[in-house]
Amino acid sequence: MASTAEMARDERERFASFLDGLTPQQWNSPTLCELWTVRDVAIHTVSYDELSTAGLVGRFLKGRLNTDRINAIGVADYADRSPEQITALIRAHAQPHGLTGGFGGKIALTDGMIHQQDIRRSIGLPRTIDPARLRTALDFARFAPTIRGAWRARGVRLVATDLDWAYGKGREVRGSGEALLMAMAGRRAALDDLMARVKPNSPNGFDVRVCDYTAARPVIGGRSLRVTMPGGAATTAGTALITGIAV
Fold first, then answer.
1. Which residues fall within 8 angstroms of residue 128, CB to CB, at 6 or more apart?
2. What is the pLDDT of residues 50-104, one digit of tens each?
3. Which of these, 38, 128, 139, lies nearest to 90 by C-alpha position?
4. Using CA atoms, how far apart are residues 92 and 35, in angstroms rounded to an integer?
5. What confidence tens digit (pLDDT) does each residue in 120-163 have?
6. Integer CA distances (angstroms), 27 to 10, 39, 116, in order
7. Where are the domains of the chain?
8. For residues 128 and 176, is the Cβ–Cβ distance under 8 A?
9. What is the pTM of this model?
10. How far apart (Å, rounded) are the C-alpha atoms in residues 165 and 146?
11. In terms of DSSP bridges, do strands 241-242 and 218-219 run parallel, antiparallel, or are they unpaired?
């Protein structure tokens, strides 16, 4: 089995190859990352790798320790790079350095995987992710400080349908490993790919598709979640949480 560092390197190399095939229009397309285009997301994945320790501290201070501001500064620093220069930079830093090399490369692997899916989901180019690589990212996403997957999934049991992985306690929410990873990362678009069990202890129990219900009342800092019933009707049910939303 490949080491995490080897997985991270291969993930970045495959990401660069994927980006090579995009059109100029796709490079400027929106992604699941609010306000960021494909170009912005791509450069973000390596925007920390060239920083020295002093440079990293300086960026954090400039961003006033706010993650969104810090990330935005990193993207802005590379605003003049062309798509060809961005993919060359990703290849040059295929082996993660500095901050992204943390936890044996798990930061680069997980962040890069999520952001590649941010792009792929938005422009309609899905892929099959290596199970071992995906399982490593799922495990790390639970407790990664900037993802907080365990907090977002509190009150439910996440179960992957395409690989041997499960986490949590509570009402069962099932879906592909990729959809669970994206949900733990706060991507509401992934909720459409998850299924929840209604009346799990009843012989009349049935599965419903999880979907975002934007007009619902606040619940523990999140929002109620609407599930699509058989026949297309919708209802709000339960109190467990996924991505900060009741299910």
1. none
2. 888 899 899 999 998 888 899 999 999 999 999 999 999 999 999 988 888 888 9
3. 38
4. 27
5. 999 999 999 999 999 999 999 999 988 989 998 888 899 999 99
6. 22, 5, 13
7. 4-127, 134-246
8. no
9. 0.82
10. 21
11. unpaired
